[in-house]
Amino acid sequence: MADPASSRAQPSGATGVLVLADGTVVWGRGFGAAGSAVGEVCFNTAMTGYQEVMTDPSYAAQIVTFTFPHIGNVGANGEDIESRVEGAVGCVVREDVTEPSNFRSAERFAEWMARNGKIGLSGIDTRALTRRIRQSGAPNAVIAHAPDGRFDIPALVKRAAEWPGLEGMDLAIRVTREGGEQWAGGSWSLGKGYGRAAFDAKPHVVAIDYGAKDNIFRNLVKAGARVTVVPAKTSFDEVMALKPDGVFLSNGPGDPAATGEHAVPVIRALLDADVPLFGICLGHQMLALAAGAKTIKMHQGHRGANHPVQRVGEGWGETSGLVEITSMNHGFAVDAANLPDGVEQTHVSLFDGTNCGISIRGKKAFAVQYHPEASPGPQDSFYLFEKFVGGLGS
Fold this sequence. Notes:
Blueprint: E1 16-20, E2 25-32, E3 35-44, H1 50-54, E4 62-66, E5 90-92, H2 109-115, E6 119-122, H3 126-136, E7 140-145, H4 153-162, H5 172-175, E8 181-182, E9 185-189, E10 193-196, E11 204-209, H6 214-222, E12 226-231, H7 236-241, E13 246-249, H8 256-272, E14 277-280, H9 282-290, E15 295-311, E16 323-334, E17 343-349, E18 355-360, E19 365-368, H10 383-390
Parallel strand pairs: 3-4, 4-5, 5-6, 11-12, 11-13, 13-14, 14-19
Antiparallel strand pairs: 1-2, 1-7, 2-6, 3-7, 8-12, 9-10, 15-16, 15-17, 17-18, 18-19
């Protein structure tokens, strides 16, 4: 940021602050929960879905900068959440949160943030902050809100500087569920809410929860599956005891290499047993690591609801080259330059050419880096659920 706020005294009325690890101090107006939290600052370019973003476990230990200036103007409700576990620790927005203007709103966004322990800052030059992330990478920082405007800035700088960052951090074990469960939720419809899953449906999908978004399970149900969700550290024998027709590998936060230490051996055993596999986001990275690929930390990551992805490689027939508009949320990527033999690239980002999909030759195993359940197209990518569920037992 060309004119860091650390060069200025605290402005009158400033009740919130973002303190970067390099000592940069960005003043704002706090809303939501009071207190402080540490995390990596990222940015999201989506114009809608802020409540889903804030409750996505993939954002654990992250502070989201929303590039769309008017966040909170449709309020919050009990249906537009993705998980009951930890999501983003806070958010940074341009305009103050106003009164909601949407018939589905049940409470103000600021009130919802406070009730869920999340810290917000408004009045921030989000363009400058986003430019800083694009140029220098995602920084570590502390976000803080004090209604009385009192802050110990040196202590906050020290806390931000000492936080180790996401590399090497296994956050999946922090956001996964404690025990297994039969997934009960179906698709949502206006005025009716979420439907119910059929517990006698076939085929049976066992979903490994590394920090899953609930709407993924609803889409598996919509595609015709019965879903059992299990914790991140469920063993191969425990998975097989459930007699799955296929196994789903969920999204989640943190460094995939760290999560892979306990996840990869299970996935390799599933591949050896020829169990059909489908992965999304972190699950995509887990499948790639199990097949011998590597993952890398991205400079700024991909987070938004307008990312173009192209189908590439063999096997797509007349749809080869088709472009999907996708929703993304990841700061790590599969290293496309060093894919091992037997791993085929199936999707690629048209923004920067990074890998967005793979399949394993000779196996019913594939994965994508984006979120097909997030309806960005809005239905560009639902075929992936149909492909997975439809291929089970065949």
